[in-house]
Amino acid sequence: MEEKESGFSLAAIALIKGIVYRSDQPIVWEHLNQNISAIESYFEKIGLEVYLDDEGGYAYLKQGESDLPKLVRRQSLSFKVSFLLALLRGEFARREDETEGDVVITKEEIVDRFMLTLPEHNDEAKALKEIDGAISKVVEMGFLKRLSDGGYKIQPVLKSFVDANWLAEFDKKMAEYEKLMQEKGL
Known InterPro entries for this protein (predicted)? Predict the structure, then answer.
C-alpha cells in the first residue's frame, strides 16, 4: 500500500472509530489534513460529513438530515450525564477566555457543583458513586480526558455537541424536573 493510501486509510478509520484529537493523534491529524478532500468525498457517498475544527484541534463524523438510515447513533443520556455535560459546557465557556491552553477541572470541583445544584442526598456514598459513573460515561464519550494528576481536561469538541439548542432543551427539562419535585414536596 502506498504511503498516501495508508495515510488516507489511517485517518478514515480513526474517524469511523470516533473523535480524532490533534493532541492525542498527531500523525493521524496530519494525514487527515493532507487527505481532507478525498476523505470528505469518501464519507459523503454514504451520507456522512467530516467536521474538522482546526482551531479546537478535533474532527469527527456527523450525519446530516437525510432519508438514509442512521449510521451515527444517538444515545439517550441519563439525567446525571446530561447535567454533567451542561455543567462542563458552562465551565468551558467560563474558563476558555481566561485560560491559556487546556481547560482543566478537578473531580472535587465537579462533585461540589453537583452537590450545590442537586437536591440533598441522604446517602452521600451513593451520590458520589453516581457522579463517578457520570464522569466515566463522559470520559468514554470523549468530552473529558483523564489527566495523570487526577484532573480532567474538558475537550473543546464539547462545544460542538452541547450547543445553545442542546442547553435550551436541557433547561426546559430541568424546569419540568424542578416543578415535579416541588409538586412532590421534595
Answer: JetB
